[in-house]
Batch of 2 targets.
Target 1
Amino acid sequence: MALWDCVAGAAAARGAALIGPARAVPLASLAHASCLGEHLEALRGRAVVVAIRDQLTAATALLELDGVARRMVLCTPDLSPEHLPHVVRTAQADVWLGDDASNAPPDTGTLDFAVTADPQPLPCSVQRRASCNTEWVLLTSGTTGAPKLVAHTLASLTSAFAGPSADLGGQEGAAPVTWSTFYDIRRYGGLQIYLRALYTGSLVLSNAGEATTDFLARVAAVGVTHISGTPSHWRKALMSGAAERFSPAYVRLSGEIADQAILDALRAAFPRAVVAHAFASTEAGVAFEMRDGRAGFPVSLVGTSAEGVELDVSRGTLRIRSPGNATAYLGAGAPCLKDDEGYVDLGDRLELRDGRYFFVGRSGGIINVGGLKVHPEEVEAVINSHPRVRMSLVRSRRNPITGAVVTAEVVLADAAAGELSADERIRQEILDACRTTLAAHKVPALIRFVPALEMSPSGKLVRPSA
Amino acid sequence: MAVRSTITHLFQEVAREQQRQLAPLTDDLKLLQCGLDSLSFALIVARLEDALGYDPFDTAESFPVTFGDFVKLYESRAV
């Protein structure tokens, strides 16, 4: 069944809408209107690069294209034009779908035609008929700079919540749900929220470049009940002070390791909300969601869940075999998505402490101090536990003695910072905490206070490549 | 002199942090016998780079053996 068939009836009954910063698209209106108009039928059976810049237009187009296009490639808004030919060729795309603000189609000689989507769906006689199982292709960062293309189906993308034992909130009889996310919906984390919203309620979209304060004011004004972002998004939100005027029922973290400090801070900021942290990736899909307010996950999660998600830790990393797994990386010569046992393993390393597994970073991000390994996230968790610290970035610094040492850049939580004596005291307290908790080689050699840390367009801390 | 005193101060600071017994810092003291381990030296070198703005090891032809060599290596690059 295509996405439209799954959501249309219930969405119309709920008066659900996709809500952008300046305008909204009521889902019911799409029964007799389209942002693709007469071009919709021309896209049937095609492999379409969805290069629409405007998020609301893209959200509408994806709903219209599922079941119609054979394949659709979701270009992230920050995708560099230099990578477009690679994306078009790897996806074997034959149609370009853009809007007024999108890049021009690359001259690969393989595109048959280009279509421009209308920002506001125009009334027309539209045939909502599914004729294929559309392949959804997401882009994820590759080690070489060129994106990797990851293929999913609607079934794999919705397996975490549309199955028989789904627990979404917002189903029949429940209070209406309005979702929002800091993510762009063309990334896996955002796409999950987009699809959940279509199945259960409305969605308020973020707006690239919008200040966190303004975004939070907007979601509060619309009455958003469910909202997701990365731990870095949430730290920024808490720093903005605007979170105080917002009272959601459900706050979700994903995309980065959620440490205890951010979970505690969110519980304090949103006392009436369920604070959940999910582990998911573009390739593996959603592995689990924890709602117990504690970092990491219990040993009992290892094995097979009711939803058919199998977690394995026997090789020291979290391996995931599930209906939510992507199908494959696209492209000739692309690496195998799954290992010899059919698991997706992205090298997320685990440490077992007191019956709970904690993420200690990715194999690739390891800092090697004189032959001893340091996972940046492990050190960041200790630094972030200081009450005056908002966020931190631990990185490797080349060193002639040990090859590398650990250094830390720290953002303090309030403006009192900047006084030299206060900074020095906090620096000492952080170092004391590190020395008490961590092995000597993991304690930062240097701590620098910085006003902010760079975040990637996907809302994660920008980490220097290992 | 400023370079030497910065170095001396950092040797003492790191020894204190790493809870190591530092031998009296004379010029002929062998670095490997001064009581510090390689991690301690790594910390000293990293902090010296921040304090002085340069890392003389990137062009050094030989590794310093004594405390005096170590000071000289840094003084030779001082602007």
Note: Chain A has a mean pLDDT of 90.
Target 2
Amino acid sequence: MKKIEAFIRHEAFEPIRAELLDKGFPSLSIIEAKGSGRQKGIVEKYRGSTLTVNVRPKLKVEVVVEDKDKGLVVETILKHARTGEVGDGKIFVIPVEEAIRIRTGEGGEPVLQVHEDSEIPT
Amino acid sequence: MRKKMGLAVFLAALAALVLPAVAGAASLTEVAGTVEEKASELNMVWVAVATALVFLMQAGFMFLEIGFSRQKNAGTGVAKILINLAIVTLAWWAIGYGVAEGGGNDFFGDSGFFFHFDQTVAGEAVTGETSMLMLYGLAFCAVSLAIVWGTTLERIKFGVYVIYAIVFGAVIYPLIAHAVWGGGLLSDIGGKPVMDFAGSSVVHLTGAVGALSALLLLGPRKGKYDANGKPRVIPGHSMPLVGLGVIILWIGWFGFNGGSTFETGESFFGEVMLNTQLAAAAGVIGASLAVYLKSRTLDVGMAGNGAIAGLVGITAPSGFVEYWAAPIIGLVAGLLVVYAVLAIDKLLDDPVGALSAHGLAGIWGTLAVGIFASPRLIVEGAGPGIWYGIFGDQSLSNAFGQLGVQGLAVAFTFVVVLVISLATFAIIKATIGLRVSDDEEEAGLDISSHGMYGYPEQFIPQPEYSTGLPGTLGSGAAVPAPAPAQMTATETR
């Protein structure tokens, strides 16, 4: 299992989410992140003085998938998150030891699988 | 004065009209008496409207200061306004009104304490009219007090409000009001009265000097100045709240200046209100222009400060100047406020710009009377503005005499308020202390002084919306508990 952590622009999230869902990966988390990279901070002006904010808001998307699906998820993120400008973000891939579904307590690969429609309560 | 003349002519004309209609039913004296009574009542209705508008300004100060504070200090702004208004009301009723308006000597009044009926104030029996004017005076005193706390946001101990509000409402503001408006020292300087129509000095400079005194002993907010003493920006959390505060103050100012006519004769209040509007507008333009030239951005907060500065600037001259002068007064106040805020910020941490918008603009407004006061409108004994000496046919020495008197009012207000305020705050600092602890300041006054947050959701995580589906938290019975074996599996890490 791999965890894919991607720091992306906010506006890139919606197309990524839609395509991952389409391809059978509905489970993901996002976290509002602030960070710095090659992109400079924001210079705010307040009452005639300047205020430099050295970190910029980004979204951190976390998706845990089986090893074989890693490439597909990374490609999807690259496809939608890349503008070619400084500040597009980064992707990190991290090994994951274990996954447990809290509702049932079951562990292992079933946790990462897509639900059958019949399993999803309406 | 022209206004009194107008009333007499009006009464005579009305009596002449009414007389034939009621011939035989009432004598001329009776009719004239009734008309005079009704005119007085109409005057008080206008003062009542103005009083309500001036009290509305408390909401303006509240939003302005909360908007310029951080989220962790939002709730305390509400408590501050309510407690201050409550205490100053009782202090004014018990002592302050008597000191300000109760006749007496050059320095303080000596009647009207614990204001009640069957009492004479400055030699006149208390009536409904006296009560109305007493309440109007209170509204002014409360505005002046609200200005004081602008410099003290986000770090002052709540108890300080209670003590200083008593001293301010009973002594400080009443002394200044008595000197200028209550027949005291400044109402006759070598035959010339200070002309401060609605209180650029009496109300605004007084409040700002109180604010300066508090700030000198309180010091800046944590993190306002870096290790080299360079100021850092601590942005306020809500420009929409600042804007709402400014607009409410702006509207309230029509009662502040307009009501200071105390009468409806010749609808003179219309002139005063138009002057007020012209100066406020010019203040916004002046400040926006200055901040744009300085930083190439149209700063939201500064535009608001400009409106306030324009309004403070026109407060003293509003009943004494012609329409052409009002925008000049407002524009200068607006330009002044931006440069003053930036200069003061290097030394003193004044989060809302009270020292600039109320203090310097208040001084400017008081002096502007000596520059622009129209011979048509000045009070008896006073000199016109020097403008009319230079470009008109008025005596220049007389005009400069008046400007000097206006300067004296500024100096008197500054010294008296500074001395008493510094003494009061020094005593508070030596006893209960002025400042909250570092920890309390970091956490914010909402939680540390009031035990609650102004915006709880910003600080305490909220649960997600429960959809009512089986399996949501708290409805565990609908879902079988996970098997112990599986739980154990999760614990082996």
Note: Chain B touches chain A through 28 residues (CB under 8 Å).
